């Protein structure tokens, strides 16, 4: 870290930042080919220090837009982290825009020029003159060397506000942010760790979940370590993100853990994971615990159920085999489903799902068999069995359970919901 005409207060314990704004700079981030991932990393690092991200924005390499974004952020939040736009080319304007807003002239910092020149020299190259731009530094700035690239990072204090400029490439930004945290932010943060725990729920809607947990929100808000909750609905599942801030990570973690247990009490078995594990992993862990092996017979899911189960590392401990029996004839020949069942009830019916589950369980000689048959659409529906009708059966020694569902949505959504429901039926069976 190099100090450039730095006032004595800079970098020393000064204003403590409770909140930050992140501005990701780069026109490529506004297109469809590049995604801003830096802000996620920055957020993670700030949260550990107890600094909350108030908001973030993505701005192109545009002086006017970037200027407006930086001004707004400084007015509203007081600690602004910009990443990107520190390169040597004309389109990299972050340094200049920030210097102009803060009214600090840019001057060339010989130390940085030398570093960049040495970096080129180590590759037997001359430094292109445009790289001098990267050595232009506003007055009263802390400079962070970039061991992985040419653009240095800059920390600029402005009264009780501050701006941090970081290079865009993640492999340059990450180590540099670690240095900034160590040398400045660790003494300028509230030191209240933010811990988040994700509870995952299936088998009830977002509103039903909200209804069940709403009374807890008030209780959590008044607690010694308050817990806040965000509810997120996605296909076939609800996520409840519980966050708490406390003087130590352990205290914050204890508060969210206690809240997660309360949610689990309120919604019962519908809460399938209190620690963010996906459903396929929860099922896998239960299979390991019970020392059961599983075989799958899939029709409308076309292997998706097996694919999800085998996404989990170590699934060979419990996945035995799978049969995708799409045609009726395959259900008969590969799974031993009696043709008469298909004729009487139709291929999408609980009796056929049961025969599929029991057939695959018997032929694979395992503890647990699953059968899934349904109409994913868009065609193939009928008045009594519209698109989205799916029958699922779970066969366990001595007992087979089945259920018929009506999912809504396109083909992909029906398949996904069917796989989710099948995994959930297996989970509930294993918990009995
Ligand atoms: P820069 O020259 O500092 O603007 O950074 C350019 C390189 O960093 C490009 O490869 C970008 O795609 C990458 N980059 C810039 N900003 C981000 C960001 N917010 N998240 C991930 N990569 C980024
Ligand atoms: Mg850029």
Structural class: alpha/beta
Q: Average pLDDT value?
A: 93
Q: Characterize the main sheet.
A: 7 strands, mixed
Strand arrangement in the largest pleated sheet = 1-7-8-9-4-2-3
Measured distance between first and last alpha carbons: 60 Å
Q: Approximately how much helix is present in the residues?
A: 25-40%
Q: Note the total helix count.
A: 13
* Alpha carbon gyration radius: 29 Å
- Uncertain runs are 4-12
Oligomer: single chain
Q: Which of globular, elongated, flat, extended, rod-shaped describes the shape?
A: elongated
| Bound heterogens, unique | adenosine monophosphate, magnesium ion
Q: In total, how many beta strands? A: 18
Strand content: 25-35%
Structure commentary:
This protein is an alpha/beta fold. 38% of the residues lie in helices and 25% in strands. The chain contains 13 helices and 18 strands. The chain has helices at 38-48, 63-76, 94-102, 110-121, 170-183, 206-222, 249-267, 279-290, 304-309, 328-335, 339-345, 350-364, 411-431; strands at residues 2-4, 19-25, 52-59, 79-83, 106-108, 136-138, 141-144, 153-158, 161-166, 193-201, 227-234, 237-246, 271-273, 294-298, 319-324, 368-374, 389-396, 399-406. The strands form four sheets. The protein has a seven-stranded mixed sheet, sandwiched between helices. A five-stranded mixed sheet has the order 15-14-16-17-18, sandwiched between helices. Helix 9 links the parallel strand 14 and strand 15 (319-324). The protein is elongated, with a radius of gyration of 29 Å. The model is unreliable at 4-12 (pLDDT under 50). The site of magnesium ion has 7 residues, from loops.
């Amino acid at each position: 870290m190099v100090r450039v005409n730095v006032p004595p207060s800079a970098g020393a314990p000064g204003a403590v930042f409770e909140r930050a704004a992140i501005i990701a700079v780069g026109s490529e981030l506004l297109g469809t080919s590049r995604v801003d991932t830096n802000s996620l990393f920055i957020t993670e690092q700030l949260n550990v220090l107890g600094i909350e991200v108030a908001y973030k924005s993505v701005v192109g390499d545009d002086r006017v837009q970037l200027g407006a974004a930086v001004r707004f952020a400084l007015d509203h939040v007081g600690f602004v982290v910009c990443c990107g736009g520190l390169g040597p080319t004309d389109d990299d304007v972050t340094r200049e825009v920030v210097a102009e807003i803060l009214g600090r002239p840019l001057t060339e910092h010989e130390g940085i020029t030398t570093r960049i020149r040495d970096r080129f020299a180590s590759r037997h190259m001359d430094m292109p003159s445009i790289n001098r731009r990267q050595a232009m530094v506003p007055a009263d700035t802390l400079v962070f060397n970039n061991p992985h690239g040419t653009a240095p990072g800059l920390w600029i204090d402005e009264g009780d506000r501050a701006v941090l400029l970081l290079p865009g490439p993640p492999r340059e930004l990450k180590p540099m942010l670690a240095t900034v945290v160590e040398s400045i932010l660790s003494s300028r943060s509230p030191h209240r760790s933010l811990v988040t725990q994700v509870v995952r729920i299936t088998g009830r809607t977002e509103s039903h979940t909200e209804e069940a947990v709403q009374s807890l929100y008030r209780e959590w808000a008044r607690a010694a370590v308050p817990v806040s909750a965000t509810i997120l609905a996605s296909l076939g599942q609800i996520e409840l993100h519980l966050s708490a801030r406390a003087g130590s990570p352990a205290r914050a973690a204890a508060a969210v853990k206690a809240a997660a247990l309360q949610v689990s009490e309120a919604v019962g078995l519908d809460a399938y994971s209190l620690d963010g594990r996906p459903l396929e992993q929860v099922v896998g862990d239960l299979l390991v615990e019970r020392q059961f092996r599983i075989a799958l017979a899939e029709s409308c899911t076309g292997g998706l159920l097996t694919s999800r189960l085998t996404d989990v590392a170590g699934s060979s401990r419990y996945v035995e085999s799978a049969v995708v029996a799409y045609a009726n004839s395959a259900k008969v020949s590969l799974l031993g489903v009696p043709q008469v069942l298909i004729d009487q009830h139709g291929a999408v019916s609980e009796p056929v799902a049961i025969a599929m589950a029991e057939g695959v369980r018997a032929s694979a000689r395992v503890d647990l068999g699953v059968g899934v048959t349904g109409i994913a659409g868009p065609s193939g529906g009928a008045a009594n069995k519209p698109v989205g009708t799916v029958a699922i059966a779970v066969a366990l020694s001595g007992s087979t359970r089945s259920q018929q569902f009506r999912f809504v949505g396109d083909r992909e959504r029906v398949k996904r919901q069917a796989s989710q429901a099948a995994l959930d039926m297996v989970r509930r069976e294993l918990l009995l």
